[in-house]
Amino acid sequence: MAGPQRVTLAMTGASGAQYGLRLLDCLVQEEREVHFLISKAAQLVIATETDVTLPAKPQAMQAFLSEYTGAAPGQIRVFGQEDWLAPPASGSSAPSAMVVVPCSTGSLSAIATGACNNLIERAADVALKERRQLILVPREAPYSTIHLENMLKLSNLGAIILPASPGFYHQPQSLDDLVDFVVARILNLLEIPQDMLPRWGEHYRASGEE
Fold first, then answer.
1. Is position 92 annotated in a ligand binding site?
2. Was 14 annotated as part of a binding site?
3. CATH of the domain at 47
4. I need a labelling partner for 73 at 20 to 30 A (CA). Which of 60, 62, 105, 137 fits?
5. 199 in a labelled binding site
6. Number of domains in the chain
7. How far apart are the C-alpha atoms of 24 and 63, rounded to whole Å?
8. 111 within domain boundaries
9. Quick one: CA torsion of 56, 57, 63, 68, rounded to 10 degrees?
């Protein structure tokens, strides 16, 4: 099986809840175990931007997301923001990859400074210190100098900064196509198979065009 078997997926309070929910669905369909972390602000964004209303308690949320995505029992594990005994909080048991999508600029700042005030920040700190894959998907416009400096710092520390900036060369026909573009890029970085977006040039090779 290509790519990591377990992935920590965190959602924070930037716009773009659809990206995180779609990635969760894709990870489940690819039979990956997901450690799911979410901020209170992200729950508000989800309720605002989608027709999904998540239960507040981790166990109820875990049951809801498992049914929502068709996950196998135990495939999605939801941890509260103060659950310091959760696997993502320790380098000895954290998954080998973590994605924060969407990543608010506040979370970006906290991760860049090693704040570790909640489980999302601590999990990202673990990924950095253990030299594990950390993908941050900010969604903001425009970026301030502070945002850009934090991104540069995190990039120098080994994180991958993947702005939620969908392309148009695949001729999207819907909002879902634009969401899938970004999610496909995340899956490519994780080396997890996806068929939502052909890699550059694949269409021409498949059709025999020059």
1. no
2. yes
3. 3.40.50.1950
4. 137
5. no
6. 1
7. 14
8. yes
9. 20
